Amino acid sequence: MELTFLGIIFFIFVAVTVAKGVRIVPQGEEWVVERLGKYHSTMLPGLHLLIPYIDRVGYKVPTKDLILDIPQQEVITKDNAVLVVNAIAFVKVTDTQNAVYGVTSFELAIVNIIQTTLRSIVGEMELDQALSSREQIKVRLKESISDDVADWGLTLKSVEIQDIKPSPSMQDSMERQAAAERERKATVTKAEGDKQAAILEAEARLEAAKRDAQAQIVLAQGAAEAIKRVTESIPDREFPAYYLLGEKYIQAMRELASSANSKTVVLPADIMQTVQSLLGKR
């Protein structure tokens, strides 16, 4: 009975020893081996033998590209606008020993350094520039942190700005500002229209007055020419005035007679005497 129990203990010891001494590293990973608490070696994919109870696998590091989601954060621009920015980074472990011993958590370190650098870059830009310079921000971000992550045994393969937009409060403020600007432009446009209409109306009145004055001048010239011709054709110099005035008098009587409001027209018996009396002649 005692031998059987010891046999079981021995079998378990052998099984545990073999399990601790024989390791198979899968493709896409590298394992860091520590011997008595110190770094000893890095196991690449494949079969490996360790010294049981002395060596131990301290870290299992993926060598495939890591996709790190950079959480959304609020960033203040140079002109005090608040933007919401998030990104995604593609990182590869190129030096396993530095990755596990160079920083407490290289994934957390990458996220924090990208967030910090992103705030610094966007903080140097004004709102419009930041919203339209996504590619520029990406390039500067990669250039700024590549050297830092290289010290940790990492390579930043790419970083993409997923979203950059005004914060909800900032977006509401921008919408109200845009509405006020549209209203201001509409008011200015209406005032310009009223001004232009008033100018055109004044120009129209001025042009009409000029035409009326020209017409009166032409009529006066015509009347003068008529008097001149009548005077030249009649020796008596008073008679042309009587003639013209009498002609106008008769024309006025004709218009008065043709008026719809006039039912009866009384003509003087002696028109010439009437005309003479108008001129002060007896």
Automatic annotation (TrEMBL):
UniProt-annotated location(s): Membrane
Family indicated by similarity: Belongs to the band 7/mec-2 family.
Domain Band stretches: 20-178
One Pfam family this sequence matches: Band_7
Lineage, opening ranks: Bacteria, Pseudomonadati, Pseudomonadota, Betaproteobacteria, Nitrosomonadales
GO cellular component: plasma membrane; side of membrane
Membrane topology: Single-pass membrane protein
Listed name of the protein: Membrane protein
